[in-house]
Amino acid sequence: MRRPDDRAASALRFATELVAWVATPWALASHSSLLAALSVLALIGLPTLFSTPGDKANVIIAVPGWVTILLVLLQLAAAVAFSWLAWPSWAAAPVTLLAAATLVTERRRWRWLVSANRLAN
After folding, report:
1. What is the mean pLDDT of residues 74-80?
2. Around Cβ 112, how many Cβ atoms within 10 Å?
């Protein structure tokens, strides 16, 4: 099974990640600047360190596909939840739509990530 062409999904996923990287520390900064900084480290650092072989060119720590899926879901949840906490509804609503679109477009990649014959080729 070949890795699906996910250019559109990648663009949506990256846009959602950017929102998560901005909205999460923005919402947490009023409570703790340390927590805000740690949230950015976690949101950027975890997917950088942990990746599924075949999904990225450089794998630092190899993890199964379901872990990569959970990391994407973490980004999506952070983007949606913290955008609603940090921003007015007119700004947070499009983030929710962006995350929903990302969920839809990620399905093929996620099926591939959890497939048993992912590395057969």
Report:
1. 98
2. 19
